[in-house]
Amino acid sequence: MRIQLDLTPTQLLPKIAKLWELSAVKIRSIEDSYKPENGTPVFTVEGKYTARGWTEWTQGFQFGSAILQYDATGDEWFLNSGRQRTLDLMAPHVSHTGVHDHGFNNVSTYGNLLRLALEGRTGASDWEKEFYRMALKISSAVQASRWTAIPRVDNVPSWLKGEAGYIYSFNGPHSLFVDTIRSLRSLAVGHRLGHQMMGEGDRKVSLLGRLLAHAEATSRYGIFHGKGRDAYDVRGRTAHEAIFNVNDGAFRCPNSQQGFSPFTTWTRGLAWAVTGYAEQLEYFETVADAELEPFGGRAAVTAMLRTTAEDVSDFFIEQATSLDGIPMWDTGAGNIHQLGKYQDKVSDPYNPYEPVDSSAACIASQGLLRFGAWLESKGETEKAKHYRQAGLTVLSTLLEEPYLSTDESHQGLILHSIYHRPNGWDHVRQGQAIPNGESSMWGDYHAREAALYVQRLAKNEPYLRFWPQ
């Protein structure tokens, strides 16, 4: 990536204003055409949002986008829409026992509404706030209950000796997805709200403990650290899925559902890790030392989170992206060799060989910015600038054509997003050899979230955090 070292949040404000202008039109268009009985909007086909049954993991992004639009612009139509849709349709997601996506669905809706209420932005009553708190507490426990215990190994840090394991994916108890690292925000919110998960025999289960155990398991088994784990161990590379033997909890192998292979990096999974670990670093700064002592103390927790955040962020910057900060959908995809060294070129979503994935860029831009902010808080100014400027560079690219969708008849906000390339689910337009020109609900939501984050920085507004203050 060619990092723009002089770019500032203030310089991006005109582009961000344009994004919100387009975003308003697109959210209204989706709302006008959306029929809940037809399923949750997932990605666009010829510019119109369509459903795709797999798991219902994008509805929170749909309604959360309206809430972010209100946050950024103050237009109450969007607050009313997002709030009413959350009330009417999100309850099944709170109690959904079959997915690992609670942080995506519920923190994006109930969480954003509670955050705005506590900021005094919505006039919410005390009972309305309690409604949001209750939803988030239950969501955190349901998420944490999808638990597969695994054996401790000799070099696991002492803070994991209470419990080792992971929140398993919708694929089943054998499956650890890298995606879930960003959905851990659900457990963090539940813990911050003082919720206590209860298990069999009234056993109390620490949400904080499960958060830490899952983060460590993802780092150990889903992310490579350049220490000779296997012949393909490149520092910062991620596997989409880690497979375990549920009979004895033993790790068996890396795998990939949505990437090209277990030994290449699906860049949206990489992006989930970039942002998931960075925002957990920020969150744990607000957790008291006494709460961390049962898990080995602050130094051990911070070291694990920081090492992982740095590894995946460096891989994203140095190996996953083109010069302008946009990654290919997978760093080892079958025809990627036809592009030559794509890292030395500006991204081309219309190339005939392999798609880019703008949604990975939308997600990762915020993580790079947050990691930079965390490093700045530690006095590591030069390192902080490196990651902050990388995040601003990626976002700046996304806020312009060919990525910003300026056609108001197209319901997507950010173009050239990829959903599931191996399954062939992404639309290939007439005259094109690969998927391009379409959008995804998660890409659009995260573009809005990153834009709001930078807008607040530029305007000296309260720092955007996912947990209640």
Structure characterization notes:
Helix content is 47%, strand content 7%. The strands form four sheets. It has a three-stranded antiparallel sheet, covered by helices on one side. The protein has a single domain (10-458), classed as Glycosyltransferase (Alpha/alpha barrel), CATH 1.50.10.10. By secondary structure, the protein is mainly alpha-helical. The protein has helices spanning 13-33, 59-73, 76-89, 91-94, 102-105, 107-118, 126-145, 180-183, 185-192, 207-222, 267-284, 289-292, 298-320, 358-377, 381-398, 441-458; strands at 41-45, 48-51, 147-149, 165-167, 175-177, 197-198, 204-205, 241-244, 251-255. It is globular.
Throw out a few tags for this protein.
469 residues, mainly alpha, Glycosyltransferase, three-stranded antiparallel beta sheet, two-stranded antiparallel sheet, globular
SSE sequence, one letter per element: HEEHHHHHHEEEHHEEHEEHHHHHH
CATH architecture: Alpha/alpha barrel
* Percent range of helical residues: 40-55%
Span between termini: 35 Å
**Largest beta sheet, briefly?**
3 strands, antiparallel
Rg result: 21 Å
Q: Would you identify the regions where 5 or more consecutive residues have pLDDT less than 50?
A: none
Number of strands: 9
What is the domain total for the residues?
1
How much strand content do the residues show?
5-15%
